[in-house]
């Protein structure tokens, strides 16, 4: 068998494999980031949020709303130096907004089993 025939068989097999994989797994949303920052933010996004009245008042006074909290949980950066990650029950994380956000702020978030409670907000 010539080398060109071997290459042709290889390419036909690879293309059939790609088509099968895309057909079987094409509609799935994958999260492939395993960095600590991304894992914490993903965990906070999938939980029920509890925002106390005081925090809502702070947001309203600064011209922001709860959508800014959602944006923070998607694009924020977790400050692990300020966070309390050694607790057994509910860990407390400091999440800082990125520079592209319209107003820079940080949120202290308590991450429990089924809820994420915003403990406070600090504007920079």
What is the gist of this entry?
The chain has 124 residues and is of the alpha+beta class. The protein contains four helices and five strands; from the N terminus they run H-H-E-H-H-E-E-E-E. The protein starts with a helix and ends with a strand.
Structural features, described:
With about 120 residues, this protein is of the alpha+beta class. About 40% of the residues lie in helices and about 25% in strands. A hairpin with a 3-residue loop joins strand 4 (about 105-110) and strand 5. Helix 2 runs antiparallel to helix 4. The N and C termini lie far apart (about 70 Å). The model has no long low-confidence stretch (mean pLDDT about 90).
Secondary structure elements and pairings:
Layout: H1 3-25, H2 36-45, E1 48-50, H3 53-61, H4 66-75, E2 77-84, E3 91-96, E4 105-111, E5 115-123
Parallel strand pairs: 1-5
Antiparallel strand pairs: 2-3, 3-4, 4-5
Helix pairs in contact: 2-4
Low-confidence stretches: none
Describe the sheet with the most strands: 5 strands, mixed
Record the strand order, biggest sheet: 1-5-4-3-2
Helix content: 40-55%
Structural class: alpha+beta
General shape: elongated
Write the element-wise H/E pattern from the N-terminal end onward.
HHEHHEEEE
What's the total count of β strands? 5
Give the C-alpha Rg: 22 Å
Termini distance? 70 Å
Strand content: 25-35%
- Please, how many helices? 4
Mean pLDDT over the full residue set:
90
Observed structural traits:
about 120 residues, alpha+beta, five-stranded mixed β-sheet, about 25% strand
